[in-house]
Amino acid sequence: MTSYFVRRFLLILPTFLGVTVLVFTLTRLVPGGPIERMLNEAAMAGADNAGATSGYDGHGAGALSDQQIEELKAYYGFDKPVLVAYADWLGKVLTLDLGTSTRYSEPVWETVKGRLPISIFYGVATLILTYGVCVPLGIVKAIRHKTAFDNLSSAVVFFGYAIPSYVVAIALLTGFAANLEWFPLGGFVSDDFDDLSGLEKAGDVASHAVLPLLSYMAGSFAVTTLLMKNSLMDNLAAEYVRTAIAKGMNFRAAVFGHALRNSLIPIATSFGNNITLIVTGSFLIEKIFNIDGFGLLGFESLVERDYPVVMGILVISSLLFLIGNILSDVCVALTDPRVKFGSGESGQ
Amino acid sequence: MPLLAVEELSVAFDTEDGAVTVLDRVGFHLEAGETLGLVGESGCGKSVTALAVMGLLPKPAGRVIGGRVVFAGQDLIDAPAEQLRRIRGNRISMIFQEPMTALNPVQRIGRQLAESITLHEPAATAAVTRRSLALLEQVGIPAAEQRLSEYPHQLSGGMRQRVMIAMALASSPDVLIADEPTTALDVTIQAQILEVLRTLQRDTGMAVLFITHDLGVIAELCSRVVVMYAGRVAEQAPVEPLFRAPRHPYTRGLLASIPRLQDEPKTHLTTIPGTVPAIGELPPGCRFANRCPLAQALCSERTPMLETLDANRTVACHRWREAVAS
Fold it and tell me: Which residues of B touch A267 (CB under 8 A)?
């Protein structure tokens, strides 16, 4: 099994190279970029100036001279062929230098680092809530299959699943923040956060988090809950549960002592991928609640053609994704003793 | 008083077309220490009978709608869940047809075996391990110590069925219900498992209710036989008289269907024409009438009652005398 995981880790390298080459090339092929943006800004400034101080014979539309543009291209590395530029970029990444944001003019890592606490907070909170609620809910629904509780909770869960999360977000924001004023309108913390005591700080973060978290959860509840429910129901009907009861176990003990671990196997197949939660985040929900997370950062860096940030986020998220896949395999191997990766001696 | 008596037991299952009666007033008894065979074609209600006795009918679809199951003087049908739990696996144990799926795939053998011991008699770990090893050796599992730390998928089908038997024996039960325990195994392993069961029955003196569709196994293992057809008892008798002089036309058909070594090679195998009527389309009167060579108009009109022929033989057939004569 060890050799299997070593192989899997080695395979990260070519996959990572493939993903980054592809995206790096794309950033070169699509129109627009930091230089075009600067030219535009300069042109706008020029136009404004022209309006304000009429008659001034400035640069106007041709805000920058060709020589200046060439210098800029050299500065951003656009003067080199794609593969050479990619090699330069990769060399820097290997020394843990993700480059400099063209939009914020600060190291990409600084930009990313600023968003990390927010994203980790929402990622971990979503993770805990998803598994903390969906797994127990799925268990209860399986045991009480076709009861009023089961039907009602299914209705709620599917309702949440059917509505786009940004609609939920707007509805929550209008209802509970704007009208009822139970929760703040947005942001991660209040403006006076630094003046609050420790406990007040926690309360402040929590009250800001309620509505965004609800919006995130509304859609993701259905999948895990129903997966858990169906998986457990399959196992409750399994013969080994009947064996356990025939041995003299009561039903409840058979559910938790025998069926539960078996029914967690399908859940485990995607558990490791949760590691990527810390760099994901819905751009729409972040936008609605004015949260400076990864979703917003990724979207804005794309719109603004801030390629170093785009590539930086890609490096982090693709690495996490690849590691997450391996972690999922580890989780499956931990829950299911029949799984023996890579050693052909498995039972069935 | 018999150790286990099934009296007029009727069981219904809910289907999409409404409730269907799958067991119709089934009755038999099991004396302490004897081996009773329950035989019949697939779908005749053998397994349902066993599950009903154990209180293991699939819920909520299956339910007992009449009759009693009396074990050691106490009715199990209406017994409270906790009381039933203390009997299951302790005084009445059961082994199943599919050893491949009857064990929990993610738990070690040792843990599953230990569980059947401690569920009824909490004991220290060392004592439980000793008892587990003794049980595995009793059912003929070599390298027992190593098996305890293995998972079911690391064992062959025969070994798994031995583990199942060991678990069933954990509390030295009075009754072992064996529901086609050898059907899923190949022939040589079948013979080994039967040998294990026979030895255990002799050594422990437990009563065995042996469910099978294989008359050969019945002849080898049982002292008495109950023949079931389409949810009813057709005939019951001690093994030797049943094989020598079957009374019910169905039993006669079953026995005639066994190929014999002395038969001319490549002769056609004898079969009972037709098939068992589907549950939900059961005809009135005798359910075997449409396949019976001796059926008359009466057979499709009136349900034959179980007729006691002598102290230990009963048959449910209007025409058994003609059957004997033919």
Answer: none
